[in-house]
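input
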Amino acid sequence: MKNRILFIILIFSSLSFFSFGENKTSFNLFGNGETFRLDVVTDSVLFGAGLTLNGTSLIIDKTATQKTPAFPYNIDDVNAFDRMMAFQYSGTLHKISTVSCVAGILTPALLAFTTDTSEWFTIAAMYTETFLLTNGIKELTKALVFRPRPYMYFDGYPQKKIDEGDWEDSFFSGHTAHAFSGAAFTSFVFAKYYPDSPWRYAVTAGTFALAAATGIMRVAGGNHFVTDVLVGAAVGTACGILVPYLHTLTAGSPKGDSSSSALSAQITPLGVSFSVKL
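output
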């Protein structure tokens, strides 16, 4: 599941903001820079940090010895707060929450219907960095923190999850983190582009409602404790806001600045061409 989600989002971030049709599409690749601006230093640090976090977690995961469940697990050993809302495994809720998670990851695609084509590459780049950071923090934490999932304390646990070693990765909820990351990113970016639009409230409410539903189902389905979901929501929201916010710090340079208009791209069904204005 981890690899599939990563593959989906990388493809989405690279291609979803480009529209293909019978007619070629031409646009300024980096937008006008008035709202968000890509910056060599900022983007190198963010992208590099994301790759480093993911790479480190992958190395740890591949070199670690897979643990064997120490049955029986006693629910009374869990803290009182989490114990109140610990449930047995539900395959149905697991599948539905995975679908809602993917939907949450894809919510930034809504921005393609509201923003100018010149901004699409900038949005895609920022969201790729957001995803990599969210996923990297989540994966590294799971690799370092041992916590059995709630379903391990009940009968009816999924043997397949145990065989895969997923049973010990309760902290923290990756589904919730990604759903909230997508919600926060979409809401923040939309609000920055359209600060006076009444639709910004609907966008925020809708995307965060989907993210919250994902978190609730992760708890109800026995995959996570409440604290796993709360931390996942906090991490996802922080990444979803921090990355685009950092790109506002260098935005708003004069229109005459050549850095915002030097590179443009032209897309056709046959390929992509780039042009540089000197």
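quick obs: DSSP finds nine helices and three strands in the chain.
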